[in-house]
Amino acid sequence: MNKQSIQIALAYMSVVIGGGFASGQEVLQFFTGYGLVGVAGTLVSGLLFAFLGMQIARMSSKMQANSHKEVLYSLFGARVGLAVDVVLSFFLYGVGVVMLAGCGSIFAQQYGMHPLFGGVLMTVLVIATLCLNVKRIIDLISAVMPFLLAMVLIITTYSIFNYNASVETLDAVARENNETVSSNWFVGALLYASFNIAVGFPMLAVIGGMTKQSKAAGLGGVLGGLGLGVLILLLNVGLFANINQLQGIEMPTLALASRISPLLSVVMSVALICMVYSTAVGMFFAFSARFAKPESVRFKGFSAISVCIGLALSLGGFSKLVGTVYPLLGYVGFALILAIVFSWARGRSRANLEVQKRELSPLS
C-alpha cells in the first residue's frame, strides 16, 4: 500500500461524508428506519462503495482524466454523457439546498432559533465565499473533517453501550415510527450507494486521474469504500440503539451529543455547521461552474441568484428534503452504476478473450 492509495481513500471518504451523513438524518432514513435488517443494508452499501470506488478511480487513472466529463463521455458517449452531466449538476444543486435547510435545523434544534435564521446565515456565507473566492476559509473548514469524524465515533460508541430498551422494542420502534426512502431495505441500500456515488463521482474522477498507477488508484477506491461502510455501520447501530429517543428529531447525532453533555452538543453543532458549510460551497460551486467560468462576473452573479433561490427552496425542511432529493439523485446514480458495471464486464470479457487467444495460439 502506498501513499497515493491512502490519499485517494481519505479524499473519497471526505467527499461522501458531508453534512447529511454527520447529522445522522441520511442514515436514519436509508438504514435505521428499516429496523435491525438495516444493518444488512449498511453492508450492501459498503461493498458497493468499495467496488464502484475502485472502478471509477482505476478508470480515471488509466485515462489520466482531468475532468469527470471525460469519464462520463467514455461511459455513455458524447451525447448521453452531456445529458447525464447536466442532470447531475442540477441534482448537486439540490444537495446544496438540503445543506441550507440543514443549517436552519441546527439553529432551531440547538439554539431554539427560527430555521430561517440559520438558512439566511449559511446563504450569506456561501455567497460571500463563492463571490470573494476565499479559498483559505474552505481549506480551514475542510480541516474540520477529522475532528467531526472523531466526534461522530465517540458519540456513536457511547450510544451503543448506553441503550435503555430491548432489541425487539427498538426494532419495532424503528420500523413503525420512522420514514424510509423506500419500502424495501435492499432498495434503500442501493439508493444510498448510488446517490453518494453520484455526488462523489466528479471529485473521485479527478483525484483518480491525478494518479499514474491504476492499481494504486483502484486500491484507494477499495479502502475508501470499505472505510465508508464501517462508518455507516457504526452510526446506524448507534442510532438504532437509541431510536426510541430520536422520534421527530431533525439532527439525530446532535440529540445524542446533548444526552452525553451540553458542552459536547454545542461543540458538535459548530462542527456540523462547518461541515454543512463546506458541503454547500462545494455543491453550489459545482453547479455554477457548469454554467459560468469561475471567478468571472457572470459566475458571481449566477452564484448569488442560485443560492438565494436555494434558500427559498430550503424552507421545505431538512428531513423532508433529504427524503425527497437524495432518493431522486440515487435513481440518477443508478445510471452511473449500470454504466460502470457494464464497462467492468466488457473489460473482463476482453481480457478473457485475450487469454483464450494466447492459449490457442501455437507455441513458438
From TrEMBL:
Presence of keyword Transmembrane: yes
InterPro entries, alphabetized: YkvI-like
Keyword Transmembrane: yes
Keywords: Membrane, Transmembrane, Transmembrane helix
Transmembrane domains' residue ranges: 34-57, 78-107, 113-132, 144-165, 185-207, 219-243, 263-287, 299-319, 325-345
Top-level division of the source organism's lineage: Bacteria
PANTHER family recorded: CONSERVED MEMBRANE PROTEIN (PTHR37814), MEMBRANE PROTEIN (PTHR37814:SF1)
UniProt protein name: Membrane protein YkvI
Species assigned in the record: Stutzerimonas degradans
